[in-house]
Amino acid sequence: MPSALILGATGQVGQHVLRELLSSSHFTRVGEYGRRITNQDSITTGKERLEQKTIDFDNVDQAGLKDGKWDVVFITLGTTRGAAGSAEAFERIDREYVLNAARAARTHDPNHFQRVVYVSSGGANPSSPFLYPKSKGLTELGLAKLGYNDTVIFRPGFLIGTNRPKPHPFENILGAITGVLSHVSKSVEINVSTLAKSVVEAGIVGSSGLPKVAEATTGGPGDGRFTVIYNAGAIAMATKD
């Protein structure tokens, strides 16, 4: 029975991924490592299998991530330029923290199969002239080159069903637009709980076991290939039954 580590469990997507992991009988241990951790009073299922630890992402090598010998590493860590305060801070949190933590969680044991599942963003492109999609694209490439046996990337559309303390007015406008477009296309928005279900399933079955409805593709250069699941595929995975 495998173990799972989640980085970014207190975020909008991470909260739901953690809930799915603790509800699943597939994982014997679930680790939640982060700058902040979930209040145990809010956990109703699987609490006995949860290991929590606060860590400093600026000194992540001292956090002992690889000591847990985690089989599947889920990464839902991320931010926005506005929340970070500057472009430099954004890139440090959104890319450097992700890559450094994923690197620190690698055991480098040839007998230990490890998978990493990362929630990126629709439009991620390492060559983009825009900060956000470029950072996501570079993060994807960096993860694929870390040597995990299997790398699965989700590129969701606009996230709905979030519970942000102070939603940005732009999000309300964009949400109204994607809400209309969602009636004609499944590529524009996804509920965070729906995304979480597909993320956890991908972590369980891996690239080779993904259902056809996921419409998974392969991305990355020859020395760092990874599996990509877009918005419509994530919705289909979560609703296929």
Could you explain the architecture of this structure?
It is a single chain. This protein has an eight-stranded mixed sheet with strand order 3-2-1-4-5-6-10-9, sandwiched between helices. It has a single domain, classed as 3-Layer(aba) Sandwich (Rossmann fold). Helices cover 34% and strands 19% of the residues. The protein is globular, with a radius of gyration of 17 Å. The chain has seven helices and ten strands. It has 241 residues and is of the alpha/beta class. Strand 9 and strand 10 form a beta hairpin. The mean pLDDT is 90. It is found in: Mitochondrion outer membrane. This is NAD(P)-binding domain-containing protein.
Distance between the termini: 24 Å
Q: Overall pLDDT, averaged?
A: 90
Oligomer: single chain
CATH topology: Rossmann fold
CATH class placement: Alpha Beta
Tally of individual domains: 1
Which blocks of ≥5 consecutive residues have pLDDT under 50? none
Identify the CATH homologous superfamily.
NAD(P)-binding Rossmann-like Domain
Strand portion: 15-25%
CATH architecture: 3-Layer(aba) Sandwich
Helix content: 25-40%
Number of helices: 7
Give me the Rg, rounded: 17 Å
Shape: globular
Write down how many β-strands occur, each being a DSSP E stretch of 2 or more residues: 10
The ordered string of helix (H) and strand (E) elements is EHEEEHHEHEEHEHEEH
What is the structural class?
A: alpha/beta
Strand order of the largest sheet: 3-2-1-4-5-6-10-9
Largest sheet: number of strands, sense, barrel closure: 8 strands, mixed
Family: Belongs to the FMP52 family.
Main location: mitochondrion
Pfam families: NAD_binding_10
Subcellular location: Mitochondrion outer membrane
